[in-house]
Amino acid sequence: MTPDLNRKTITRNAYRITSKRGLTCLRIRVPGGHLKARYLRVVQEIAERFGSGDVHITIRQGFEIPGIPFEKMAEVNQALAALVEPLETNIGVSLEKMDQGYPAAGTRNVSACIGNRVCPFANYDTTALAQRVERAVFPNHHHVKIALTGCPNDCIKAHLQDFGIIGQADVQIDSSRCIGCEACEKACRLRVTQAIAMKDGVAVRDETRCIGCGECVLACPTGAWTRNPEKFYRLVILGRTGKKNPRLAAPFVEWTTESAILQILRNTYTFIDAHIDRSLPKEHLGYIVDRVGFAEFKRVVLEGVDLGSKAQVAETVQWAGYTYPQRPGCGTASP
User: Where do the domains of the chain lie, and which CATH numbers do they carry?
Assistant: First the structure.
């Protein structure tokens, strides 16, 4: 017999309401998209023992296990403890009862590209930072999407998220090692922003054009270009998909630090708590900012934040997207 169900309780426990009557679908978090291979056995066991035997790999780098009867949720949560427990022991997320599944699902799985553990283009360890972001924001019921990418190539599609954290390399040149081969100038001219020019046979960087991709470092045959070991980031904000008004995230802060980004994320939840429309089942962050105004969002999220000496903050933000025309007299309630 299907038990009495509370939709909000189910979804907050990381289960979906599905198209199959009597069946639900479990969402499994994989912060940063990185999972020890041994945990795949737990995913397999839950799928085969309680679900349909299938596993869906989501666009957010988590797993979904469909075909689970609602009455099996308690048993599934006990089996899931082997995956929930590492959130606390390995990442430092504060959890109370690990045998009751995930305590929240509103803030989606923090996703990340493979980062500099593997990719030569990446400017930082995306997995490690994604796990620190997870520790800062989870568990939370507010609907927020965060993605991390190692460089401006943006393989993770950070520009479609509420927050995209993009690695920036503060590149430096040792002019005594530059042989004037123009390899860096060519790489930047063909693939990036034309931030490098040759002057008196030596490469020179235009800081106003440089986006910190690090292509010059990879192209240089003599090692004249190097990355500053100090890490910097560009934060792009409030991109989204959806039916109503899809758009790309826009730059908010550039050349800032990890600690600044983590505090901005924490402050965002303060902003949401103060301004969310509680008459709606949920309201996405971007629509809250559209309604309240960018100036108020900026004021709240930057309060008490040390952005660092190199940081540049956008005065205003213009998002690239499109909006369907509204009928006269219709309300502006957002999803």
Answer: 7-100 (3.90.480.20), 111-165+234-313 (3.30.413.10), 171-227 (3.30.70.20)
